[in-house]
Amino acid sequence: MKKAMALFLAGLAAVSVTAAAASAEEEKDLKVAMICDTSIKDGGWGTACYNAMVEAAGENGWSYEVTDNIGQEEYYEAISAYCERGYDMIYAPGGQYTDAVLTAAEEYPEIAFALLNGAATVPEKAANGNVTSLLPDAQQIGWIAGALAGLMTKSGTIAFIGGMELDTTLGKYAGYGEAAAYVAAKEGKEVKVLDPVYAGAFDARDKGVELAEAMIDEGADVFFGDASAVDSGARQAIDAANQAAGEVAIYDIAQPADTLGQNECIICSQVTNNAAMISISMQAVEAGSFGGTTMYGMLQNGALSAGEMSDLVPEDVREKYQAYLQQMIDGTFMEDAAA
After folding, report:
1. DSSP states of 22-60 as a string?
2. Domains in the chain, please, with CATH?
């Protein structure tokens, strides 16, 4: 009887310890930190990526912190500082952080690293399997902007500005050009896509002004960019050109958040729901299953979409554009292009 009672009490103690451990785990303040080489108030990439982290953290009960406006030489230092402070996940919003992330991931195997726009091959390079690439479909992003550009251009010349010549940026440019050309041909017109130009940075707003002015001089009347604060500079130049002309005849398609109304020239936005991918990453950390994978964001799973459209877009163009977006979702977009 005494032995049975002892076993019973031991069982209770074990349950109590397990419950206490579970309770402690539930009460643990999980933390995510973001680094960014541009400002989180840039009205473009930096703002959208920061807001996505904040939204995901709120949904999952995580606390968060950010270090922005840092140079390339500071990436690793900023990441390792958060690792030393015990952050559970590092969120790096761009392929330019790849080297710093892989270096830190090897040094801090217990920490999760979520790399937005990291190449699909990055997770397998992580020595400890603690890196996940969050990879929105670059071609589809380009398609979303390109289809509208092909419908809206009057000059037949469209432009693309990049921050750096990253693989994802090249993919967006390619999709942008092919979709614009396809849609324009359906409208009985031709479209010339100017060669992509790169600012060499994401925080060089003045470079965006300079590049956009030069491309306007070449006849570009629809712009799309992948350059954060550089995009904001480009819109500044576009708005100035429109004001000088007395009408809005040069347009910009924004990304990755819906920023309609931020500038007069914005006619629509390509929207990436980064918050959903960050949220899934947080849940994987909690479940102990994070790392070693590439998470794709597409139109088909709701990670990509088009935002609200400006009144500058005619109703017939809206209808055609929505039809093309549906084709992209259905997998039939441009299937007759090779015919």
Report:
1. HHHHHH---EEEEE-SS-TTSSSHHHHHHHHHHHHHHHH
2. 27-137+274-297 (3.40.50.2300), 139-270+306-330 (3.40.50.2300)
pTM to 2 decimals? 0.80
Per-residue pLDDT of the chain (339 residues; tens, 9 = 90+): 333 333 333 443 444 443 434 444 445 699 999 999 999 998 888 999 999 999 999 999 999 999 999 999 999 999 999 999 999 999 999 999 999 999 999 999 999 999 999 899 999 999 999 999 999 999 999 999 999 999 999 999 999 999 999 899 999 999 999 999 999 999 999 999 999 999 999 889 999 999 999 999 999 999 999 998 899 999 999 999 999 999 999 999 999 989 999 999 999 999 999 999 999 999 999 999 999 999 999 999 889 999 999 999 999 999 999 999 999 999 999 998 865
- The runs of H, that is alpha helices, within 223-314 are 229-245, 274-287
Two tokens, residue 85 = 């402070």
Residue located via tokens 């942008």: 176
Given a contact cutoff of 8 angstroms between Cβ atoms, the answer to whether 155 and 314 are in contact is: no
Tell me, what DSSP letter sits at residue 201? S
Q: What 3-state DSSP class applies to 164?
A: coil
Per-residue CA distances from 11 to 2, 167, 187, 254, 327 (Å): 14, 57, 76, 61, 60
Please choose, from the candidates 136, 168, 120, the residue with its C-alpha nearest in 3D space to the C-alpha of residue 277.
136
